[in-house]
Amino acid sequence: MAKVNPVEVSHEAARQNTNTMHLALRPFMMISQLLATLPVTGTWQKSSLEHVHFSWCTLIAFLSLIMITFSIIDVVLSTKVVVELGLKLYTVGPFSFSIISALSVSSFLQLARKWPNLIKHMDRCEQIFLQKSYGNKESRNFSHNVRKFGGILLFGAALEHSVYIMTAIFNNDFQIKQCNLTVDFWKNYYMRERLQIFSIFNYHAWLIPLVQWITISTTFAWNYVDIFLSMIFKCFAIRFRQMHWRIKRHVNKHMEDDFWHEVRNHFMVLVELLHLFDDGLSTLILVSCCNNLYFICVQIFHSFNNRDTFIKEFYFWSSLLFVLLRILTMMLSASAVHDEANKIMSTMYEIPTKFWCLELKRLNEIIVHDLVAFSGKSFFFLTRRLIFAMAGTIVVYELVLIDQVEDKDVVTDFCTSRNHCPALDYRKTALSDNRNECIMDLKSWSAKPKIGKRHKRIIGVLRVRNIFRRGTKLDYQHSGSFLEAIGPVLLLAQIFALMPVCGILSKSASELYFSWKCVRTLYAMIIIFCLGPASLCTIAFAFRESFNFDTIEAIVFYVSIFLIALAFFQLARKWPALMVTWESIESKLPPLKTEMQKAALAHRIKMITLVATVCSVVEHLLSMLGIIYYVNGCPAMPGHPIQSFLFSNWAQFFYFFEYTNLAGIFGKVLNVISTFAWNFNDIFVMAVSVALSARFRQLNEHMLRAAKQPTTEKFWMDNRINYRNMCKLCEATDDTISIITLLCFSNNLFFICGKILKSLQKKPSWSHSVYFWFSLGFLLMRTLMLSLFSAEINDESKRPLVVFRSVPSKFWCPELKRFSEEVTTDVVALSGMKFFHLTRGLVLSVAGSIVTYELVLLQFNKEDKVNDCYEG
Predict the structure, then answer these.
(1) What's the rounded mean pLDDT across residues 750-766?
(2) Using the 8-state DSSP alphabet, how is residue 799 labeled?
(3) First-to-final CA distance of the chain
(4) What is the pLDDT of residues 407-418, one digit of tens each?
(5) Which alpha helices (DSSP H) does 708-765 contain, by range?
(6) Cβ(695)–Cβ(586) under 8 Å?
(7) pLDDT range class, residue 295, cuts 50, 70, 90
(8) pLDDT digit string (tens) for 20-44?
(9) pLDDT of res. 333
(10) Could you report the per-residue pLDDT of 147-179, keeping only the tens digit for each?
């Protein structure tokens, strides 16, 4: 037996002991205490948690009480300003910020009293996950990963605050010069920044350090709520990933009941710890979500204000972007806990029945019936669906405001309102401031065949000849595979620079490959590189010329097309591996017998593509008629109708660059490609959805034919394995195209709401009216069909439950019982980055949302608005 070096063992033990939450958070806890946030003593201890405690009789607690006292005074003084100056946005802003600061500091003080108990429970639980059986790569660098994660967030907060200070100093200097004030620079600066304080107290230099400390502490508390929560959530997500990693390693192994008993107990300990932390953190979570949602909505309102200098514009958008990234990071970190728990359940379904035991069943029941997620006082749970719901709320708010704010609502007078410039900064205006063999690794797969250049040339010539040859019987025979069905659709997409995959019309998935040296790849890259600057020109045009709903629509359109092109390019790199997975799983399904069955999938996909493409072409032609009408009435180049038409197609580009005929033609070509990409996004998701639902239907009909006949346990075992393979195929497909799905639904919902907003506006001509209503009807129908086709996957995945009811009792077996439980508890559907799942419930939700938006938006309708140059 090899001897173990005791020195190495001691070093290993010491390294593992550093991978705890207590030590990972230690530097951040020390910083927070310097700023009177989370007053817990003993956090500087590296080894023992015995000294971690809370006491009222400490300097840190005393400073925290001082902070709360000043926050309450700040609330009172801000209330006084509101009473004196009226309930306005620039007075409600500091008032809201003072309330949020007081709530944040108070919540941290309340958490400090529970923290010693929480961190000691966490330490006892972490001793389980420091064992070698849970030692995955991520856990070996636990503290480093958490500290790096928190450090990036904290650096971003410090950078944002530094930009704020520089902007405030610039604004102060600008005010003094603009208004010809004869006052001390720093006196005017602090009186502007802390109006509510110096409206009561006289300005004294000795007050400045105290005021500055209070300002930094409240700003830190405002940022630290999200940063602290994000680090806690990341710690729990890592521990759940360790649990998932251990279970996944033993999926295809026969393990004793004692092993699964231990795993179940460890999982229960981790879940109980999560509920304990949820009880302590729920107030902070509630404060954080309310605060961020309020701030973002107010900032959207102020996005319409005119900021006359670059530094003000830069600070406003950088601060808004930072807060959006901060809240998104916090909520994604929290939702990762819920996602990892669900992944454990999916992995357990891969365990063969011969290895299934009572402990596994009990563990499965715990995951199914217990919602493993953090919450805000149980009012809501931090899952990906919540993120999507909040984003929807923000978009509705924006749509209501975006066409209602006029320039006269902007306050830009620096020399009024008691030396206070309410429109200069957001703090004063917003808040005050391993798998089954059928599934293959998509990343490591390389399906590019090794063939020479001469062989490629010969193949290319033969393919060109084959296009014009006479059809044979083989051309009308189908294999029934998804690769065969989707090939013509992808060929159409490549004409418009999407999906640059070689061999898409091949009979075997092994002949598919992606190559950087391929002409179609180069073509796609050129279009992507053109769409990027086009998006930037559209954004710059909106801010320089006219920031209204029409320009916002153009920004959303071109930016989304740029993202769609990038998403399809990334998908093209993964497509060969995914198609090999499809081919492998399809070969194990019950075979299709008749030629009609084999041709059904290809025929359905072709009809979807044909109808959608024809409607898209008609819509684009109608839009061109509208532009022609506009050009005749308001020509950009009088006497040159063709040039005026090309100019109007890409007006945002020619706002910055001189018009040329070549640039105008290129702009029109890019516009046609963009329009096709916008529609093809939905066509592609519908085609994938139809194929997945067809494969589930193929398996279900096979089981239904045999359900009332004598069946064996092996029959149901084979079908359960096929069903599980289909579920994993759906998951692999979803992981590959989920970004495209998200872009589909978010785009459609935005443009439907936008068109509803304009539905009662007067149209300049009959061509505009025909185009508008055809476009709206086509968009609604396309979104409905997309939702229904996608929901078919979930419907067919639940259909085995109907089949099981037909099985006679004498043929019922444990395998059927397990099969039934899997179908009942597993959610099989495509999703939009896990934010939502495409089920029939989503169809109803989308329809309800559209109706709600319509009822709200129509109240703000401007009936007399005419969208042409004769307006007014």
Answers:
(1) 78
(2) T
(3) 93
(4) 444 444 445 444
(5) 713-757
(6) yes
(7) confident
(8) 888 888 888 888 888 878 888 877 7
(9) 92
(10) 999 999 999 888 888 888 888 888 888 778 777
The pLDDT, as a whole number, for residue 632 is 77
Q: How far is CA 794 from the centre of its chain?
A: 22
Burial of 319 (0-12, 13-18, 19+ CB in 10 A): buried
Q: Do the Cβ atoms of 399 and 753 come closer than 8 Å?
A: yes
Amino acid occupying residue 832: G
What percent of the chain stands above pLDDT 70?
A: 82
Instruction: Flag whether pLDDT at 782 surpasses 80.
Output: yes
Strand partners, 41: 53
Residue 9: predicted pLDDT:
35
- The pTM assigned to this predicted structure is 0.74
- The C-alpha atoms of residue 62 and residue 68 are separated, in whole angstroms, by 10
With beta carbons less than 8 A apart as the criterion, state whether 781 and 680 touch: no
Cβ atoms of 482 and 575 within 8 Å: the answer is no
CA distances from 372 to 34, 247, 375, 829, 831 (A): 34, 17, 10, 20, 20
The residue whose two tokens read 């006679």 is: 808
Phi, psi (rounded to 5 degrees) for 805: -65, -20
CB 345 within 8 A of CB 362: no
Return phi, psi of residue 375, to 5°: -145, 170
Q: Which of 834, 847, 853 is nearest to 394 (CA)?
A: 853
For the chain, what is the mean pLDDT? 80
Q: Report the residue count for the chain.
A: 872
Contact 175, 192 (CB under 8 A): yes
Stretch 681-705: mean pLDDT, rounded? 92
Place of tokens 């009216």: 769
Contact predicate 150/227, CB 8 Å: yes
Could you tell me which residues come within 8 angstroms of residue 502 by beta carbon, excluding any fewer than 6 positions away? 512, 513, 514, 515, 518, 520
* Most confident listed range (12-16, 159-163, 632-636, 689-693): 689-693
Distance CA 751, CA 561 (A): 14
Return the bridge partners of 375, or none.
381
Mean pLDDT of 257-267: 90
Tokens of 268: 């229960």
Listing DSSP states for 466-529 in one string gives HHHSPP-GGGG-----HHHHHHHHHHHHHHTT----BTTT-SSGGG-B--TTSHHHHHHHHHHH
Task: Kindly write down the DSSP assignment for every residue of 39-70, as one continuous string.
Answer: --BTTT-SS-STT-B--SSSHHHHHHHHHHHH
Among candidate residues 313, 296, 308, 373, the one with its CA nearest the CA of residue 341: 373
**At what angle are helices 89-129 and 59-85 packed, to 10 degrees?**
150
- Rounded CA Rg of the chain: 31
Instruction: List CB contacts of 108: < 8 A, sequence separation 6 or more.
Output: 32, 37, 38, 39, 64, 221, 224, 225, 284
Task: Give the span between the Cα atoms of 829 and 745, in whole angstroms.
Answer: 15
